[in-house]
Amino acid sequence: MLEAKRLSSQLSQQKVQKVLDAAQVNKERSVLSLHRQVWLQEHHRLNIARHKTEKDFQCFLHGGGFKESDTDILSQLQEYELDLEQEREEFRLTTVEPIYQLRDDLQYRLASHCSTANHISEPEKVLQQYRLASHCSTANHISEPEKVLQQVLSVKQQQEEVIDRLQCECVSLQQDICVTELKENLLSAAMEDQVAYLEKVPDEIFIADCPYPELRSDLIYSFHSLTEKYKLRLAIVETRLQGLDRNCGWNAADHECFQHIMSQYSSSLRNQRSLYIDMLQRMLPHISKQELSAHERQSDWYHFSISQKNLILQGWQRDHSELLLRALSMLEDCIISHIQQQEVQKQRLHQQNICLKLRAKLQRWCIQQEEAAELEATLAANWYKEEEERLRKEHQREKTRRTQLKKQLQRWCIQQEEAAELEATLAANWYKEEEERLRKEHQREKTRRTQLKKQINRFNADKQRKQEMQRKKDMERLAELRREIEEQVQRDKERVNFRKEQFQQKLQMREAEEKQKQKYDKEREERLQALRNQVSKVAEANPERMMGNTVAWRVRQQPEEVFTLQRPLYQLNTYTDTQIVSDPRVRIEQALRTAGLHNIPYARQILSEIQPLKPPRRDTESTAFRT
Hints:
- The chain has about 625 residues and is mainly alpha-helical.
- The protein has helices spanning about 1-60, 70-115, 125-135, 145-180, 180-200, 205, 215-240, 250-265, 270-285, 290-410, 415-535, 545, 550-555, 575-580, 585-595, 600-610.
- The protein is flat, with a radius of gyration of 64 Å.
- Helix 5 (about 180-200) runs parallel beside helix 10 (about 290-410) and helix 7 (about 215-240) packs antiparallel against helix 10.
- It is built from 16 helices and no strands.
């Protein structure tokens, strides 16, 4: 029982292993089919690129890609092309042509031995079928197939030797090209030239006229700062590229194979990475998957750094061009603004000269006014001093008088009535004197105000007179403008009325033309109706004719007529020669043509004035050129 279980487990393990092997085979087959599709696409793309490159090269050689001074180089290239063509033809005759001849010979022999053999293009298949046919042949023909097989094997060996030699030459040529590093040297030289060009400040900044030296120095500083910024970025990228070469640590052949396989598989494929990793493991079996992944990261990092460096150079070039354009436009604007400032400065100096002259006049007038004001103030100050002195003396006298009165009041306190009368008398006198003084003072003030009022009145009168003159001028200008506006309005009204009249006339003419057209259409319709009535057919009801046979049917039912040889092919419906010659226009034109006068204007005038024998019908008159 244990042996039976062991056998059953072994059978199940064998089945599982068989299923796994089948799955592995199916997976391998599906992966190979995907690789084959990618290879076919790449083969098609490379063929297109090869044809395009050859076409561009031929166009470059034969389409004027060189200048007149490069005729020697062109002749050398053409001679080299002819040499390559001769070598290619010799190679084809010595290597390819014998193979095709041998294949044709084998196909002929195979067809002669096996009539059921199909057409096979590949030499190996042909050889295989020929071997099978040779085994099936008789013993009398054993020596001939052996000779053929030896010949095929020798040709195959020669072909393998040629292919190995060509492969060695291709590898050596690739190594020579890689050693020269022409592409990298050209790219590095172009990049260095571009960096050297971008580092320099453009000569346009130094040549251009700039009225402000500070602006030129600021622009130069801007270019230097831009250069420093991008050089710092380039230095960062260069530090990333340190330790990385073009092959990223591999030899040139492996790296080229790696890049070529990576370029074949586009990102649109579903399993892109798994596919190209599988192909890389097949093409490079001596490299592990971890090394492939590390090399992939290094290659991506290298290409990313190179593309970033190119982008930095492009950005530097773009910013350099934009900064140069902005600097040139700024310099032009500065020149224009400097010229404008000079013009403004000239105008300002002119205005300042005018203002200085006006200021001098104003100062002289102010000095005169100040002198007048000082005199007036001096007079007023003297008057105020005299008035104060007078008031002080009066106050002193009043004080003395009051003191005396107080003493008298103290002395004569008993005699109140007498003192009161005396005080009333003294007060009355004082009031009279004070009133006289105030009256005189008021009189003087009134006189001064009267003089001032006269001056103000004269000033107001002058001002009023000037305003009246200006108002009169404005009124005259306003009246003149109103008169011009009224004249313009009158002219506009006349023009509008004239346009209205013209429009009404056009409408009337259009209505008249429309009525005339309607009348003409109506008359034409009446004439046409009359013609229709004239040619209309009135047929009576005839059931027998309607239900009977037609004329065409009766003609088809009749026996065929005998063909008459002299009968014309077509029935002629035209004019006879007598009818044509009876027209006087034909006879006159024939006479003029005989005399050689049919092309002169006189003959055309005569022919246009001759009337036909019968006037043409109305319905045949042409209306194409009628206006």
